[in-house]
Amino acid sequence: MPSPFARIVAGPLSRALSSRNARIFFGASLSAWTGLWMHRIGVAWLAWELTRSAAWVGLIAFADLAPAVLVSPIAGAIADRVDRVRLTMLSQGTIAAEALVVAALAASGNISIGLLFALEMVSGTAACFSQPARQTLIPALVAREDLPAAVAANSLLFNVSRFIGPGLAGPVIAAWGVAPAILCNAIGHGFATLSMPWLRMDPEQRRGHPATTSLLAETVEGFRYVARHPGLGPVIAFSALSSILLRGVQEILPPYVERLFGRGAESLAMLTASFAVGALISGLAVASRGRLPGTTRIAVFAILAQALATAGFVATGHFGFALLCGAAIGAAASAHGISVQVLAQTAASPSMRGRIMSLWALVTRACPALGALALGLAGEALGLRLPTLIAVALALVVFAWGLSRIGPIARSLETAPERRPG
C-alpha cells in the first residue's frame, strides 16, 4: 500500500508538475527562494552583529518588506498590462545584484547599518514587482482544473526553501560569516532570472490586457474589485490583520534566540528550520486536497493554531519546546497562506489577477514588516515576551471575527468558477 507521502506526490501535485514549463518555473522558484531565505538569515544576523539592537533588526526586516505598502498595488497593475516574463527577469535580476553588493560589502567590512537598510529597500522594491509577475504566470503553466494544486505547489516549494535555506545558512554563517550566505541569494536569483527565457508560453498568456485607462486608475480599480467582492475582501482583510499581529515574530528571530534562550547563529538556523519543517508537513497535507470546499475553514482555524503556538513559543524558556512551537507556527502559517492563495487565484478574474496577487504580496510582505517593526520597537522598552503575548491576544479577537464570517466567505470563494456568480 502506498505511503501517504507517495499518494500526495502521485496525486494533485504530480499533475501540477507534469509539464515542462511547470518544472522549469518551479525549479527556478526553489533556487531563488532558497537563496532568499539564506539572505534573510544572513542579513538579520548581520544587523544584529552590527547593532545588538532588536529595533534595528526589526527596521532591516521592515526595509525589505515595507516597500510593498506603496509599490505592490502599482506593481500589480503593471503586471496586468506588460510582458510578465520580462518583468520577472528585470525584478529578479535586481534582487540578485543587490545581494551581490551586500555580500561584497559585508566581506570587505565596509557595510554599515544605514547602508544595509538602503540596499534592503532596493531589494524589497524589486520583490514587489517579482511576486505578482511570477504568480500571474502560474495559470498559464497548468490546466485550469490543476490550478489549485499548482498554487499549492508554489506555496509548498516556498516552504521547502524555508527548510533548505536556513539549514544551509546556519553552518555557512558559523563557519565563514554572513557574506557567503548572502552571496547564495545572488546565485539563486541569478539562475532564476536566466531560466525564464526557457519557458515556452503563448504570447497572449505572457502579457496582460491592453491599457484601457491610466495606471493609477487601474490600481484603484483593483482595490475596488476586492472591496466589493463578498469573499476576497473579507479573507484578505483577515489575513492582513493576522499577519501584522503574528508574522512579525518570524521576521526578527535573532533577538528572540539570544534574549529568550541565550543562543547563537546555529540555534537561529535550527529554529528557522523548525518553522520550515512544520510548514512543509502542513503544506503537503493542504496541497494534497486538490479541492476548494473546506479551504476557507482551514484558512481561518490556522490563525487560531498560529496564535496558540506563538504564545507557547514566547512563554517557554526551554529551547526544545520552542522548536516544537516553531514547527507548529510554521505549519499553521503555511496552511493559512496556501489556503488564501488558492482561494484568491481561483476567484480572481483573469484580467485582475496581477492586481489581486499584488494585494496578496502586500499582505505577505508589508504586514509582517509592520509587525516586526512594532515588536522590535516595543521589545527595546518592554522586552520581547509581553508585546508578543499582547499581539497574540489581539490575534484571537481577529480569529473570532473570521470565524463569524466563514459561511459567507466560503459560499463566495469555494463555488466552482464556472458556476460562480458575477
From TrEMBL:
Keywords: Cell membrane, Membrane, Transmembrane, Transmembrane helix, Transport. GO terms for cellular component: plasma membrane. The chain crosses the membrane at residues 24-48, 54-78, 99-119, 173-199, 231-248, 268-286, 298-315, 321-344, 356-378, 384-403. The keyword Transferase does not apply. It is a multi-pass membrane protein. Its main location: membrane. Residues 232-422 form the Major facilitator superfamily (MFS) profile domain. InterPro entries: MFS_dom, MFS_trans_sf, TM_effector. Pfam families: MFS_3. One of its GO terms (molecular function) is transmembrane transporter activity. It is found in: Cell membrane. This is Predicted arabinose efflux permease, MFS family. It comes from Muricoccus roseus.
